[in-house]
Amino acid sequence: MRCLLFENAFIVKRLYTNTNLFTKYGCLAIEETGNKPFQKLQFLVRDWSYPYEANYGSGGGRKILDKILEISDGMHPELATLRKHIKSCFTDMECFLMPHPGFKVSTNPDFDGRLSDMEDTFKICIEQFLPMLLSAENIIQKEIGGAKVKVKDLVRYFKCYMEVFNGDDIPQPKSILAATAEAGNQSAVAAAKETYHRLLSAACQATEPYLSVEELEQEHQRCKAEAMEKFMNKPKMGGNELSEQYRIQVEQVSCQ
User: CB atoms < 10 A from the CB of 61, how many?
Assistant: First the structure.
C-alpha cells in the first residue's frame, strides 16, 4: 500500500514524473507475468481547501481521482498513455481528501501533537482515514509477480531494490524488473530448501533408533523431489534462463 502526501491537490500533476518510472516497470511486469504488478495505491491529499467542489474524505477523493485520471479528447498522447498505465498497474486505487489541521499546528513551533490544538474537522477525518490503512480487513498480504510474499521474503526484495536505487541516477525499469526477478528466484530457492529440511527432519524423527545409509538416501531423494516441485511451481519472473541458475541450487541440496 502506498500513501502519497501532497501539499495541494493540484500538485498531483507532479506525480507523473515519478509515476512514469513505475508504470513503465508495471507494463514490463504485466508482459512478464500477465498479472497486475501493484495492489493498492492510496493517495492522501493534504490541506484540501475546496470542500465545496469535493467533500473531505474518500468520497470526495474518489471524485477528484476519477477527474484526474479521466482521458479526454485532445489530451496529449503521453498523458493519456500514462493514465491508462496507472489504471492497468494497480488492482485498487483510492484517494482521501484531508483538511488543514489548523494554524496552531502549522505555525506554532511549540506544537507537541496534542489533539486540542487540531481542528475538529481534521480529527474527524483522521479517525476515518486510519482504519482504511490499519484495520485488519483492509490489510492484505503482499503479492509480487502473482505470488504471495512472506515477511522474510520481503527482506530479499528490499535488498535487491536497494542495490538498484543506491546509485545517483534513477534506475531503468528493466533494472527494477531484473531485481524483482532475482529476489523472486531467491525466495523460491529458500522456500524449496525449507521444504526439504522440514520433510527430512520429520522423516528422521519418525524413525528409531536411526536411518540406515540406504534409507537416508531414499528419504533424501524423496524430500529433494518435493523441494524441487515446490521451486518449479512457485511463480517466478525472469524466464527459464534465470530460473535455471537457481534450480541448480535446489538440485545441489544435501542432507549433510
Answer: 25
Cβ within 8 Å of residue 117, ≥6 positions away: 102, 104, 105, 108, 111
CB 189 within 8 A of CB 248: no
Rounded distance between C-alpha atoms, residue 67 and residue 60, angstroms: 11
For 58-102, the pLDDT digits (tens) are 999 999 999 988 888 888 887 888 888 888 888 888 999 999 999
Environment class of residue 43 by beta-carbon count within 10 Å: exposed (0-12), middle (13-18) or buried (19+)? buried
- Rg of the chain over all Cα atoms, to the nearest angstrom: 25
63, burial (CB in 10 Å: exposed 0-12, middle 13-18, buried 19+): middle
Cα 253 from Cα 223, distance rounded (Å): 10
* Distance in angstroms (rounded) separating the CA atoms of residues 121 and 119: 5
Q: How confident is the model over 121-166, as pLDDT tens digits?
A: 999 999 999 998 888 888 888 888 777 888 888 888 888 888 888 8
Which 3 state secondary structure label does DSSP give 211?
A: coil
Helices within the chain (DSSP H only): 15-33, 58-69, 77-89, 103-106, 120-134, 151-165, 173-205, 213-233, 239-251
Residues 6+ apart with CB under 8 A from 113: none
pTM of the model: 0.67
Pseudo-torsion of CA 159, 161, 162, 165, nearest 10°? 170
Q: Residue 42: which H helix or E strand, with range?
A: strand 38-45
